[in-house]
Design a protein that fits this description.
It is built from no helices and four strands. By secondary structure, the protein is mainly β. It has a two-stranded antiparallel sheet. Strands 3-4 form a two-stranded antiparallel ribbon. The relative contact order is 0.18.
Length: about 60
């Protein structure tokens, strides 16, 4: 079953493990879940009042509410 999930975070969350940092994805786009793979960089130019859908090929389209 497919779902549309709206994510507002654009960057990862840092988790400290001893002296080491682990980065957990928050954007919903990482292919290496739960870890960040840099996919959030695609979201940096999103407009705040719009909703976007990201396709499997990495392309993005604006959707209506």
């Amino acid at each position: 079953m497919a779902r549309i999930i709206v994510k507002e975070n654009k960057g990862p969350m840092e988790i400290k493990v001893g002296e080491e940092s682990k980065w957990i994805y928050m954007c919903g786009l990482s292919k290496n879940k739960p870890f960040c793979d840099g996919a959030h960089k695609k979201t940096l130019d999103e407009e705040e009042d719009k909703i976007y859908k990201y396709n499997e090929d990495g392309s993005r389209e604006e959707i209506s509410e």
